[in-house]
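Re: export button greyed out
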Amino acid sequence: MNGEVDEESSLVDINETAIFLNLSKAKVRKLIERNILRNNWGQYTNLIRFTKKVSHIEEGSVLNYSDANLEIIRGFPKIRRCLLLEPALKKNFSSVDEVAVEEKMNGYNVRAAQINGDIIAFTRGGLVCPYTTEKVNELIDPTFFEDYPNLILCAEMVGPDNPYVAKTCYDVNSLDFFVFDIREKNSGEPYPVKKRRETLEAYKIKQVNLFGYFKPKDAHKEITKIINEIGSEEREGVVVKDPEMILQPMKYTTSNSNCKDLEFGFKFYNDIGRDYLFSRVIREGFQAAEWNENNQKLKDRCYRVGSSILYPMVNTINSVGKNKKVTEDAQIKVTRLEVLDLFKQHLNRSGIEVHFEEPIPEEDGYIVKMKKLNKSTNDKTESIWLGDYW
Amino acid sequence: MNGEVDEESSLVDINETAIFLNLSKAKVRKLIERNILRNNWGQYTNLIRFTKKVSHIEEGSVLNYSDANLEIIRGFPKIRRCLLLEPALKKNFSSVDEVAVEEKMNGYNVRAAQINGDIIAFTRGGLVCPYTTEKVNELIDPTFFEDYPNLILCAEMVGPDNPYVAKTCYDVNSLDFFVFDIREKNSGEPYPVKKRRETLEAYKIKQVNLFGYFKPKDAHKEITKIINEIGSEEREGVVVKDPEMILQPMKYTTSNSNCKDLEFGFKFYNDIGRDYLFSRVIREGFQAAEWNENNQKLKDRCYRVGSSILYPMVNTINSVGKNKKVTEDAQIKVTRLEVLDLFKQHLNRSGIEVHFEEPIPEEDGYIVKMKKLNKSTNDKTESIWLGDYW
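Workaround output, generated via the alternate export path:
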């Protein structure tokens, strides 16, 4: 969120907010002073987001001040990751008869809600994303929010026309919206899995795959099969849920996904690599141990991990050595050029530097290619080619 | 240095110290207040060490207060590491006609000096190490310090009877002392390479291998050959020096050494692995790029890196899963049991928890096996086997 500039001073009504959030007025004042409560820009200055977790309120939560009633869209809670499936299922899910296993898709997390009559899409951090907002309005049957103005659709934006995480492994042409949770405004209460799936089916709103319901004590075998299958298609992983959504869900990912993260991270080793590295190799180590891999399987995994780190890094070093900078390339597809302008402003205000190429007109909109320069990796590699130490 | 307790309050004479170090009296007072100047224990409370770098004085520097004159043993300066040999040689050494290339051995760094008539060995941090002090007194011809009371021998302690870094790749039976630098007390000025080598030869004091003197523009080819040769013997690397010791030296290590570090680090992935990981894979990536490795060489390196991370980690996870804790095992060999007691106190005061077994008598001393429990890795692995999240 660096580089972001607030357009207006905060519109927060301190009294009303303190009562609504059950915080003291002094605390609300502090949150404004410290810029933890921050307003959106453009036409959405009435939407104030939490840039940090504050007592019981998640980071990325959004307060809406312009409705008849003040309301809050809760930030999407972090899903815990398990490293050893069988023990984690036993410890965390033995109080339920069965668990629901759904797909964890690889895209970016958004929340769509109807705010003062408009359908708006929020990023994980609580910013209004103009690009996603356009997409969501094109993709979702608007009668859903007419019938349920009090609900929030929590979804993954997936597909190749993706400014953040472009993946071609899903059967998606441009960019699509896959719901994995329905939650209520204010309380943040989630719908049970069956109720959510039925509700969404009635409106033909897409949702993530449901692989099935399994007994907790058998689930690790089923999930292992699923993980191996979807891993071979470069898909990301699963989320294990209490069907009633009372217990906290947990996620588990494929080796392919861990390694793809490493590949991406080490193309930009000095921007992203460091943060990605340790957690991914830890996941690989625990998966290998739990699956009791024979020598050949483990050797394959060692090579997979090593080459996911070294190949992209060596390519980057060679490329910069030949004076060719490395960039992170993506594209979006907009219906209206006005949305492109808003999206550029959105990235700019989020402190993300991106170079956009000229829009390419298509039958049903414009493809816009974008390049993000990961400056630290380019600069560091160049300086080492010039003889600097690390 | 956690857990360390000072035996007496500081003996620092503030006036004298301020003049000697060319610092203000207020600054010296602050250094004492903040425990940055800290005294040794036991019979060496007169030796005060710098636990942090302070203006021009390196961390690990030691002030000696009990001599006729106050004197300082400078901390050993950090040697910069190069990632791409040829560019780093060009940038950093093109002002000299030739560079000296010596071996960087894998052990622990000590400084030996004569202090108030006794030969004493200091750790990198400036503590008196009782074990190393005994060894040094057994290994070095004492006439050296009689002739040169003003000199410091900077050396690597190498061999299997090594409490910190046990290596069997060198032709060393128990533990030996290999000098790589001679420096003067107070000024810290180093001897030129030839003068140092001749001086040490005269006293038959061992020193690190000298591979040769090379022209800076050819040195990368020679060093690459050396690195490949010594790497195949599991040796660590080289230090490139200005023969006059005016330019700062630089180090460069073998792939084998990087991978051995990873192996060690990932046996104890949650204690050591995280710190080791990023830097080692970065070194591997740059070496592969500079050596322009063909596909098979690079594939081998990928496997080497991946297996150095995963095999030890999977072994640790499996071992803890079978209720067998992982420990870091080492041994020392002392001539007098009194030294063992002092060494135990030394580790204890440095906050290192070690379990020592009963000494095993040998013809010429006692072998003492020691086990260090890396608690964080054992505890974390156990908790994950019990179903906890990361």
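Chain B has twelve helices and 17 strands. The button fix ships in the next patch.
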